[in-house]
């Protein structure tokens, strides 16, 4: 089964989407996540839908409707013909998916949760037989590096310190990384959130940061393609 994986499109729809069996979007369809923006993103996904057997979508921290009006968000995504996973599982074309838009707290964006027990409790709900995991954010240590002042964490007032020395900092979720160790059938973990895409393979799991936008919110990156045995 050919997965075409994208994330963090932020309404930038001018890039080429290759053909495949299942299109996966790992969240941040929009900038502000209001009705107008979600409508534009849904219309774009609806145009893409006939080219795939299925389109699977999770929300991201910019997609505010997912938090403020989750019922409307679900209706609009499903109205576009998508399988919408807001922290829930689904079997799609015979593959066991789980998708979630929750991420560690960062300036109180949508679907933010404090690091530690609250996030760990959410990740404990991922079924053990999950084969393809879609989260908006990465696990700790997997394609999760950003530039931060002096290596500081999300509590740093990052936007006010852009001129200071910036060091590589891992900002993924440690509890998500721990949970992945208990998913014996996992084959793919797809995510975005950090606009520095890539692929890593370890322990039989393919980790994909599928961000399309770069750190200036320009659609400069290409979709990733991953084959999953049926």
Element order: H for helix, E for strand: EEHEHHEEEEEHEEEHEEEE
Terminal Cα separation, in Å? 6 Å
Enumerate how many helices there are, as a single number. Answer: 5
Q: What oligomeric state is this?
A: single chain
Main pleated-sheet profile: 6 strands, mixed
> Uncertain spans, ≥5 residues at pLDDT below 50?
149-165
CA-based shape: globular
Mean pLDDT: 92
How do the strands of the widest beta sheet line up side by side?
A: 5-6-9-12-14-13
Helical content (DSSP H or I, runs of 4+) = 10-25%
Strand content: 25-35%
Radius of gyration based on Cα positions: 16 Å
Structural class, from secondary structure content? alpha/beta
Total number of β-strand segments?
Answer: 15
Short description:
18% of the residues lie in helices and 27% in strands. The protein has 230 residues and is α/β, with parallel strands linked by helices. The strands form 4 sheets. It has a 6-stranded mixed sheet, with no helix packed on it. A 5-stranded mixed sheet has the order 4-3-2-1-15, with helices on one face. It has a two-stranded parallel ribbon with strand order 7-8.
Could you explain how this protein is built, in words?
The chain is α/β, with parallel strands linked by helices and about 230 residues long. Helices cover about 20% and strands about 25% of the residues. The chain has a six-stranded mixed sheet with strand order 5-6-9-12-14-13, with no helix packed on it. α1 (about 35-50) links the parallel β2 (about 20-25) and β3. The longest helix has 14 residues, at about 35-50. The protein is globular and about 35 Å long. It starts with a strand and ends with a strand.
């Amino acid at each position: 089964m050919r997965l075409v994986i994208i994330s963090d499109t932020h309404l930038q729809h001018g890039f080429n989407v290759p053909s495949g069996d299942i299109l996966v979007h790992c969240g941040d369809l929009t900038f502000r996540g209001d009705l107008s923006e979600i409508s534009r993103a849904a219309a774009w996904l609806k145009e893409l839908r006939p080219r795939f057997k299925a389109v699977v979508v999770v929300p991201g921290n910019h997609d505010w409707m997912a938090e403020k009006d989750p019922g409307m968000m679900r209706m609009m995504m499903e109205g576009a013909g998508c399988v919408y996973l807001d922290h829930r599982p689904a079997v799609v074309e015979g593959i066991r998916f789980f998708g979630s838009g929750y991420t560690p707290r960062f300036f109180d964006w949508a679907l933010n949760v404090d690091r530690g027990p609250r996030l760990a409790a959410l990740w404990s709900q991922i079924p053990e037989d999950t084969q393809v995991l879609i989260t908006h954010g990465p696990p700790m240590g997997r394609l999760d590096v950003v530039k931060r002042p002096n290596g500081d964490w999300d509590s740093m007032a990052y936007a006010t310190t852009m001129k200071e020395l910036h060091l590589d900092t891992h900002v993924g979720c440690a509890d998500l990384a721990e949970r992945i160790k208990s998913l014996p059938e996992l084959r793919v973990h797809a995510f975005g959130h950090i606009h520095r895409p890539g692929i890593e393979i370890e322990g039989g799991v393919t980790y994909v940061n599928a961000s399309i936008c770069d750190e200036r919110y320009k659609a400069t990156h290409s979709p990733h393609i991953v084959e999953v045995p049926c």
